[in-house]
From TrEMBL:
GO biological process, one term: phospholipid biosynthetic process
SMART domains named among the record's database cross-references: G3P_acyltransf (SM01207)
Keyword Transmembrane helix assigned: yes
Species this chain originates from: Candidatus Desantisbacteria bacterium CG_4_10_14_0_8_um_filter_48_22
Keywords, in A-Z order: Acyltransferase, Cell membrane, Lipid biosynthesis, Lipid metabolism, Membrane, Phospholipid biosynthesis, Phospholipid metabolism, Transferase, Transmembrane, Transmembrane helix
InterPro entries: G3P_acylTferase_PlsY
Protein name, as recorded: Acyl-phosphate glycerol 3-phosphate acyltransferase
Length: 161
């Protein structure tokens, strides 16, 4: 039981690493005071450039995958699925309310994608494809995120059960 708790706590602290903020600081910029003020990859791309935004996006996705994968390695038994899900929730909470920035973090979209990829890769990839198409057509990242998030439970229902 102690191991379960430690994995979940580790998930929070992995999620709390503010990659967007770090990317800004590496260039002498406090990303929270520029653009939308958000530390996520969209604001980073707008302020620091698309390449840096993509790097932050990938890092935020990977940090969503990492705690779930760690939980899977430690607890490969399907009966411990709750630990993987809890670690996923913890990493998203860490990203959204990072202890390192006064509990003000990002929106958690990329980190949530990472968690979804680790837990249910096929529905997550389909949602990512929807996101990409919506963003390409309408040029609104937030619209793509909302539509993809709304589609996820349907894909899970029809493809995973």
């Amino acid at each position: 039981m102690l191991t379960n708790i430690l994995v979940i706590i580790a998930g929070y602290f992995i999620g709390a690493i503010p990659f967007g903020y770090i990317a800004g600081k590496m260039r002498g910029i406090d990303i929270r005071k520029e653009g939308s003020g958000n530390i996520g990859s969209t604001n980073v791309a707008r302020v620091l450039g698309k390449k840096t935004g993509r790097i932050v996006q990938v890092l935020d996705i990977v940090k969503g995958i990492a705690p779930v994968l760690i939980a899977y390695i430690i607890f490969p038994d399907q009966n411990e699925m709750w630990v993987r899900v809890a670690a996923g929730c913890a990493v998203i909470a860490g990203h959204n309310w990072t202890i390192f920035l006064g509990f003000k973090g990002g929106k958690g979209v990329n980190t949530s994608l990472g968690v979804a990829l680790a837990l249910m890769p096929v529905p997550a990839l389909l949602c990512f494809a929807i996101w990409a198409v919506v963003v390409k057509i309408w040029k609104y990242i937030s619209l793509g995120s909302i539509i993809a998030s709304a589609a996820f439970p349907f894909f899970v229902f029809f493809l995973e059960w």
